[in-house]
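We close this part of the discussion by returning to an individual protein. In the encoding step, the backbone of a single protein was reduced to a row of integers, each denoting a local shape. The sequence in question and its structure tokens are set out directly beneath this paragraph.
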Amino acid sequence: MWHDLVPIAGMVTGLLMTGMVTWGLVSVFRGPVGQALGRRIGGHGPDHLEDEVLELRDVVAGLADDLRDTQERLDFTERVLSVGSDRGAPVIEETGSTSADGI
């Protein structure tokens, strides 16, 4: 007698689980997540992100220009220092006086 109820209980459990999963999915997809997904599928992405991406690209371009200027200044400084050391430029000692001044 109990052996006959086991398959029925399994079917009832399966139907209940299917119903709960279906209800959960429907509630998720009808909420904000589903709406956002629908907009994304429809090709209507968030406009504020496009504006933010363009703004960040401008910032990166500005930083690249600043880095290029800094590298040029560093190269110039290295060239000036290398020419100065070849000519016997005065060397600054720890006391603050230069060897060429004799102070």
